[in-house]
Write the structure tokens for this entry.
Amino acid sequence: MLLLQQIINGLMMGGIYVLVAVSFTLTIGVLNFLNFSIPGIFMLSAIMAWRALENGWHWGLAIPFGLLVAICASFVVERFTYRFMKNVDHEIPLVSSIGFLILFENLVLVAWGSDQQKFPSLIPDLNIRAGGLIIGIGQMLSLALALLLVIGISLLLKRTQLGRGIRALAENAETATLLGIEVHRIVPVLFVVTGLLTGISGILFAMNYQQVSAAMGDVVGLKGIAAMVIGGMGNIWGAIIGGLLIGLTEVLSIYFFGADKVDFYVYGLFLVLIILRPQGILGSSAATGVKL
Amino acid sequence: MLLEAKGLNVRYGRITAVKDLDITVAEGQIVTVLGANGAGKSSLLKALIGLVKPASGHIHFNGQDITHCSPSERVKAGLALVPEGRRILISLTVEENLLLGAYHRHDKAAVAREIDALYQRFPNLGERRYAKAACLSGGEQQMLAIGRALVGAPRLMMLDEPSLGLSPLFISRLFDLLSDLNRNGLTVLLVEQNTGMALRVAHACHVLELGREITHGTPQQLKADKKLQEAYLGA
Ligand SMILES: Nc1ncnc2c1ncn2[C@@H]1O[C@H](COP(=O)(O)OP(=O)(O)OP(=O)(O)O)[C@@H](O)[C@H]1O
Ligand SMILES: [Mg+2]
């Protein structure tokens, strides 16, 4: 029973990694750009929501404010990394997105220090008890929201003309352009979407752990990247599987081996999977070019 | 004139791919551009659709100066390009490829009807509408590329070496299709190295060499030019 409980907790934790992994995978899949500013955006949205709450804002305003900051930050990253540098080696936008990560974290450090800050509990500590299992409402909501968002994005990509345009761009930018798809309009949309997803995951994280700090994005960001790679870079369903798998591994290794060895098992699993299946669980080999 | 390009130059760094080219396409015509590898044929079409910026020159389409328009604006104005190597989107289904041809159109119902009509015309595509375009044969991919351009309801369809890599049977089907589309009112600008076939369907013809036009005329005039036949048209 306790094990089942841990599995449930792991899946809930995994929801946050899923969102971060999907953000990474969208920019990799469509633009071939590993956007390292994502952990910074994750942190910014949570920190800004926390500041707003501290200033007495209602959570119904504070959360949208945090998300708005995340979207704006993502938009700024687009303007200064991807937009000017799409014609150069793709390491350059990657490096400048790392620059943005460092910038965001240091701005927050300067303004509010490096300490862990308490994020007020917004959702009453309600639990559902079913046959001896305890399921936290907050955690359940965040897993449900994460999965709904990802399914929504996947439907958008499959069913809408904009989605088909994004997938065309992912496969071949020149072909997309000659079909009349406006790449310079789609790219900002993509950054807004990833900013929003990342922002939501940052706030969910803050709500579930009830703490925020300037460095909170780093650990989650690394696990998000690991989740994306495990699932298959550029594959949305792969990001879901990877995120949940990492969440599960985390809680199960705490359960079986103790909290101090978590990273060993999470990244150990990551290494083993990468060696066994370098393209990721759902990733296809580059030759077929199938993405998203 | 439906399309009129004047003094067109295309450069890549120090390489001049198209030099001082004038070309016109009248409504209802099939105009063909011939030339060996590296003559600048693809560069010309890319400049016309807006994928490369010409270093100088003007392009008018349907009475409008489109020299500084984006590819998307040109597609909306009625230009379509079937690119060299077909450039089918292999990670998308056949139907999604066709729908993307109508990216700029908002009359969904009409688009759906036209796609159905295409499936009648190309039953091979209809049967595989939900399959990934990667599973089509080369000939089917070319039909899909042409179908994708047609769904955009273009006024001028440009094709870049559509016969490349096709079997003789498919090549003759392809040229029959182009003549048929042309009889039904479609204007065509055709780049080819398959000189014989191109001259059979064309109303007017331009021959390029190293970016320059060396001659132009009707297919009859070109066929009559013995020197040209030997040197460029490989007859
Ligand atoms: N992107 C590019 N950058 C640099 N040079 C280019 C580029 N594209 C084409 N060229 C050069 O421009 C010239 C014309 O090329 P283009 O592709 O237009 O010829 P083409 O007539 O289409 O040839 P082919 O029959 O082989 O397709 C060639 O010398 C080619 O090397
Ligand atoms: Mg060419």
User: Anything to note?
Assistant: Chain A touches chain B at residues 161, 164-165, 167-168, 170-172, 174-175, 177-182, 288-292 (CB under 8 Å).
